[in-house]
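Question (not urgent): is this output format expected?
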Amino acid sequence: MTPRQSSSVADRLTLVRWKESGHVLSAASQALGYRPSWGRKWWRRYRAGGEAALLPVRPPAPGPLATFAPTVRQAVLAYRRTHPRAGARRARLSLEDDPTLQGLPLPSARTLHRAWVAAGLVPPRLPRDAPPPTAVPVLPPGDPHAVWELDHQDGLRLAGLGAPVVLQGVRAPAAGLIVGATLFPGPHGAHAVPVDDVLDALRQHLATWGRPLVLSVDRDVQFFGQPQRQFPSRLELFCAGLGIALVPIRLAHPTDHGAIERQHRTLDGVLLGPTWADLADAQAALDAQVVALNTRFPSRARGCGGQPPLRVYPTATYSGRPYDPAREWAGFDMRAVDRVLAGWEWHRLVGQHTGQISFGNRNVGVGLAWAGQPVTLRFDPNDRQVVVYAPGHDVGTVGPEIKRFPCPAFDKATILGHSRVAPRPAAEGGTTR
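Got this back:
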């Protein structure tokens, strides 16, 4: 048989499948009508770049400067190499003053930037990572626990305690009810409070009052991650698994949390002034004050009419939506977590020299075949793995799959963490802190 000189993508895929099923590479190549060297070449490319590396190489595009004179093209690229930190608009002005380019059409600043990107002088700008839109459930009228507000107040200096503390408050605004207030050591601010402690404080409130439908938070790093929203927060995935919608307030609208901000001020009146023996001493006084405010103190909250919240809303002692810390692990809904993750789309630039990307605080190898190129990542709920795709030709599309990998940050054990309130079952490696 005369070996064939060219091959189709289907033949290359068949070779890969045969090799993965245990066939000898040279025999598989000859069975398809090719030399053994052909099989070795495409197997190497597949291992370096996945299925996307089996596709034919697209012919190079003409480039942004194709319609301009060679002198202009050379000057545009030479300017960037000489001034690597100058922007395109400044380059445009400098080119206008270049006597060798007088009378020649010059590209716009936008075209200059595109030309630099095409020449590898400027890294391409990645699209922003796209989290899914927040799904807000329909709230039943008259439900005092439909919405809770969660907020942090840091920098509190209590007499007798050497370092500042952080106050975590939770409020049910529909009933003017203080769900709870927890003090944490906070020498470095609220953003440094361990997430396990934040979740444990919330677990205690859930065990006492039941679950809300919505947890309203500001855009603090502890609640929603970094401002760029490049990764889902643990609180976000924790709430999804418990059937609670985590909803951020509007940007630049702190008054959306006016009620809980006033709650902080009310509780500050208890904390600031006395000298405390330790943090537990201050927490005990805070707990007693919360009970008094809910049951005895006349409330100015809307709807309370100057009466204590639990006197006006006697059924607000329980939301009707149970939460049992002992059953948290068994009842945690990973399918709901997967639905949230499946709505995300991430974008990364493969390292020029390493062939790696950073995802979930880990370095993931994509392959040197993709060095310096952008890739798109999505979560596949079928096998709970993150899929890396080559870029698509149109906005919102992806190219062929490059590889898959598991992300430990999306595992149930990572999301739930180590809890004193809801210890993990021993069969799952559970320990108490």
